C-alpha cells in the first residue's frame, strides 16, 4: 500500500523557516525569514489535513487552491504546484511574504482549530514561487494572438499590475501610467525591504515589460497627461491609484517640524535601498538616527515605521495606540517581531497635542476601553487627569490613508465617488458609471490588503476581456 503523503500534523510539528536573531536583523533591511529547504517544505506541506471544506481557501481573497498545491509540494511535484498557485494568484511570492496569513488562510486552518498548529501556508507559497523563478518556470506573457484593443491602467501598484498581467496574456495592448519612477506602488516604496526585498518586485516589473506591457513612469495624471487624453487613447481605462492621502493629527503643535507622514518616511527609506539620493534623509528630516521616535497608530504601516526606525539607529522607538494589543488592526506577528527588535508599545494612549517646534514631546492621553461601537470593537475613552508628556524628536503619523479627490484633480466631475471619497464601482467587475472606465483596489475599497487589490485587478481584467469578447485564460502561460 502506498504511504499516505499527507495528514502528518499529528506526528510533525509546525516549523516556520528560521528567523534571524533580532540583534542581527535590525542592523539591515534584508528579509528576516530564511527559505525552506526542499525537504522541510515537503515536510511542512505534508501536515495539511486535506479537509473536505478547506477554510484556508475560502478565507483567502483569491480563493487559492491551497490544499492542492500543498499536496503537490509534499509529493515533490513542485512545477505543478507552481502552476496551480499561479493560476489564481498573479504574485504568489509577494503574497507569501506580506499577506497577514494569521488573519486569513493560516488563521482559519482546520488543524489550528484542533490545537496542532496551523500549516505554514505562506512560507510554502513563498518557497514554491522562489523555486519556480530559480528553475526558469516563470515566463513572460506570450499571447497566442495579439488583439487590437488597448487598455490604459492608471497606477502601477498590485491592483494595476495584476490587471495588466491578466489582460496582456490575452493579447490586449496595455499601457500602465504611474507618477513614480519605478513601478510597484506600495510594493516598491511603501513596504520595507525586511518584509519584501525590492529585487522581488523589480523582477515582476521586468517580466511584465518583457511580456509587452508598456510603462509610462514619472507621469502624473492631471499634470503630465489628462484623464481625457488617456480615455481617448484606449478602449478601456482602469483606475488603480490606491489611497495615499495621510489622515492627519489635530491638537496644539500638530504642525511642528519633526512631525512627518508615514508614507513620506517609508518612501525615503525605500529610495535609499535603491541607492537614490534623498535630501530629506541627508538633512535629517526623514531620518531616525539618534532620535527618540514616537509612531502613532496600530496598523501594519505603523509596524513598518517602528521597525524601520530601529534599523536607522533610533535612540528609542515607541508606538502609541489608543486601544489594547488584542484590538489593534496590525498583524500580531509583526508586533512580535517589532518587540523582539526593541520597539516599546504603549497601549491605550492617544496624542492630545505636541510640545516644541521642532517637536520635543507628545502630550499623551491615557485611555480605557468602553462600550462597543458600530463595528463591535470597544471604543476608547479618555481617562481624565492621566495626561503625560512622551519625549520625542521625531513623530511619525501612521493613522491610515484616505483617497485623494480624483474628480477635482483630474477635472472629471462626472466620476462618481462615495461619501468616503472612494471611486464608486461594482465590486465584482470594477465598472464605474463612466462608459469604459473601471476602478480597482484601495481607491474603491479604501485602505486594504495587497491580496484584495490583486483579486480586484484580476476580476476587472476578466470583466474587460468579456466586454471585448476575448477569451479569459486561467493559467499563467
UniProtKB/TrEMBL annotation:
<dbReference type="Pfam" id="PF14691">
    <property type="entry name" value="Fer4_20"/>
</dbReference>
<keyword id="KW-0408">Iron</keyword>
<dbReference type="Pfam" id="PF07992">
    <property type="entry name" value="Pyr_redox_2"/>
</dbReference>
<dbReference type="GO" id="GO:0046872">
    <property type="term" value="F:metal ion binding"/>
</dbReference>
<keyword id="KW-0560">Oxidoreductase</keyword>
<keyword id="KW-0004">4Fe-4S</keyword>
<keyword id="KW-0479">Metal-binding</keyword>
<keyword id="KW-0411">Iron-sulfur</keyword>
<feature type="domain" description="FAD/NAD(P)-binding">
    <location>
        <begin position="151"/>
        <end position="457"/>
    </location>
</feature>
<dbReference type="GO" id="GO:0051539">
    <property type="term" value="F:4 iron, 4 sulfur cluster binding"/>
</dbReference>
<feature type="domain" description="Dihydroprymidine dehydrogenase">
    <location>
        <begin position="25"/>
        <end position="136"/>
    </location>
</feature>
<dbReference type="GO" id="GO:0016491">
    <property type="term" value="F:oxidoreductase activity"/>
</dbReference>
<dbReference type="InterPro" id="IPR006006">
    <property type="entry name" value="GltD-like"/>
</dbReference>
<dbReference type="InterPro" id="IPR009051">
    <property type="entry name" value="Helical_ferredxn"/>
</dbReference>
<dbReference type="InterPro" id="IPR023753">
    <property type="entry name" value="FAD/NAD-binding_dom"/>
</dbReference>
<protein>
    <submittedName>
        <fullName>Glutamate synthase (NADPH) small subunit</fullName>
    </submittedName>
</protein>
<dbReference type="InterPro" id="IPR028261">
    <property type="entry name" value="DPD_II"/>
</dbReference>
<dbReference type="InterPro" id="IPR036188">
    <property type="entry name" value="FAD/NAD-bd_sf"/>
</dbReference>
Amino acid at each position: 500500500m502506498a504511504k499516505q503523503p499527507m495528514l502528518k500534523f499529528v506526528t510533525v510539528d509546525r516549523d516556520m523557516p528560521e528567523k534571524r536573531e533580532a540583534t542581527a536583523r535590525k542592523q539591515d533591511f534584508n528579509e528576516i525569514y530564511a527559505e525552506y529547504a526542499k525537504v522541510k517544505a515537503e515536510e511542512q506541506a505534508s501536515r495539511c489535513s486535506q479537509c473536505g471544506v478547506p477554510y484556508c481557501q475560502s478565507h483567502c481573497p483569491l480563493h487559492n487552491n491551497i490544499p492542492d498545491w500543498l499536496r503537490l509540494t509534499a509529493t515533490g511535484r513542485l512545477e505543478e504546484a507552481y502552476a496551480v498557485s499561479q493560476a489564481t494568484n498573479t504574485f504568489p511570492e509577494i503574497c507569501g511574504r506580506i499577506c497577514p496569513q494569521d488573519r486569513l488562510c493560516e488563521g482559519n486552518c482546520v488543524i489550528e482549530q484542533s490545537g496542532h498548529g496551523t500549516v505554514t501556508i505562506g512560507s510554502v507559497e513563498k518557497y514554491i514561487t522562489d523555486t519556480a523563478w530559480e528553475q526558469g518556470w516563470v515566463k513572460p506573457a506570450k499571447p497566442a494572438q495579439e488583439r487590437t484593443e488597448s487598455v490604459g491602467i492608471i497606477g502601477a501598484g498590485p491592483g494595476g499590475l495584476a490587471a495588466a498581467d491578466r489582460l496582456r496574456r490575452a493579447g490586449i495592448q496595455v499601457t500602465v501610467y504611474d507618477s513614480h519612477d519605478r513601478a510597484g506602488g506600495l510594493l516598491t516604496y511603501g513596504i520595507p525591504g525586511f518584509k519584501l526585498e525590492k529585487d522581488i518586485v523589480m523582477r515582476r516589473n521586468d517580466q511584465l515589460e518583457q511580456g509587452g506591457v508598456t510603462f509610462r513612469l514619472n507621469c502624473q495624471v492631471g499634470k503630465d497627461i489628462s484623464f481625457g487624453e488617456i480615455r481617448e487613447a484606449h478602449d478601456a481605462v482602469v483606475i488603480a491609484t490606491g489611497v495615499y492621502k495621510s489622515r492627519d493629527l489635530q491638537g496644539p503643535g500638530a504642525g511642528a517640524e519633526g512631525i512627518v507622514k508615514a508614507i513620506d518616511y517609508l518612501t525615503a527609506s525605500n529610495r535609499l535601498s535603491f541607492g537614490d539620493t534623498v535630501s530629506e534623509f541627508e538633512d535629517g528630516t526623514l531620518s531616525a538616527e539618534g532620535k527618540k521616535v514616537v509612531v502613532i497608530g496600530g496598523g501594519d504601516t505603523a509596524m513598518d515605521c517602528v521597525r524601520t526606525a530601529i534599523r536607522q539607529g533610533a535612540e528609542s522607538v515607541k508606538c502609541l495606540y489608543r486601544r489594547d494589543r488584542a484590538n489593534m488592526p496590525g498583524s500580531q506577528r509583526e508586533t512580535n517581531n517589532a518587540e523582539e527588535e526593541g520597539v516599546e508599545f504603549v497601549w491605550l494612549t492617544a496624542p492630545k497635542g505636541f510640545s516644541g517646534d521642532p517637536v520635543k514631546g507628545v502630550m499623551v492621553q491615557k485611555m480605557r476601553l468602553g462600550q462597543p461601537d458600530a463595528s463591535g470593537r470597544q471604543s476608547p475613552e479618555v481617562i481624565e487627569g492621566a495626561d503625560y508628556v512622551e519625549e520625542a524628536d521625531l513623530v511619525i503619523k501612521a493613522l491610515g490613508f484616505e483617497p485623494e479627490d480624483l474628480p477635482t484633480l483630474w477635472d472629471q466631475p462626472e466620476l462618481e465617488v462615495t461619501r468616503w471619497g472612494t471611486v464608486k464601482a461594482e465590486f465584482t467587475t470594477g465598472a464605474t458609471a463612466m462608459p469604459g472606465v473601471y476602478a480597482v483596489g484601495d481607491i474603491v475599497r479604501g485602505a486594504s490588503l495587497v491580496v484584495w487589490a490583486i483579486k480586484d485587478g484580476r476580476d476587472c481584467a476578466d470583466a474587460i476581456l468579456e466586454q471585448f469578447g476575448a477569451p479569459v485564460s486561467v493559467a499563467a502561460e
